[in-house]
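Sample entry (284 residues):
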Amino acid sequence: MSGVTSRISRRFVIFLALVQLLLLYAWVIEPNWIDVTRHDAWSKNLPEEFNGLVVAHLSDLHMRGYGARERRVLERLAEAKPGLIAITGDFTREGSDPAAIRRFLEDLGKQKPAFGIWAVLGNHDHWYPPAANDAAVRQFFSDAGVALLVNEWGRIGKKLDTLSLVGVDDSFSGLDNLGDALRGTQRTPFAVLLTHSPQMFMKADLTKFDLVLAGHTHGGQVRLPGIGALWLPAGSEGYDSGWFYGINAQMYVTRGVGTSILPIRFLCRPEIALITLKRSGSAK
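Predicted structure, serialized as tokens:
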């Protein structure tokens, strides 16, 4: 009987050790193990000037301070040398240090992507804003060299070789207004929608956007083989991570960089998505 008890005790000790190792991995290792993913987004509408443009898509930084993970993000982007950086919201979290966020964005700006840094706000940026009011938030991003789109649009390129960047405020918070975002713009050959929540995808598809970039979901943060994400936040609408396709638009939902609620990730590494725009029929 003592032999059976001893075997059970050893198995229990091994089980506890495995649990501790998994917790250590999920708490310490994976949340800081940046995954740089590479993708091609094909479109017949893409102007030749932008054929081969690499767009770095970041989201959900959830910065409390300026630490090792943020420095790794900057290092990976410096290695990739994207032509445009798009950030789809949730810079902040409870207890965020605005000075750290500004410093990170300023350091990001020093990489000088040819077509700039563009961003929209997420729900956490309204819950824990980096500045006192809306005007101050706009100034905060402007001072850091980031073009913030709050139900607004921007354009890059010249004449017919132009690309529209349209940004909506956080739809999860009910602050999105696609009509306002499009007001005054003229249709360009290729249009990109930046949105924090992927729940905008159907509207974007009906409006005939070419590419949608979204975050918010964190990919679930914890995923299990054969099951996928154990939990997704409201506003995800089943778009957990990766590519999704409509009639007109294609959307990439990134797993994001930071974490919320619990500071853990499991089989769902933080992500920088590098998306190369390619013109259909081109060999480039």
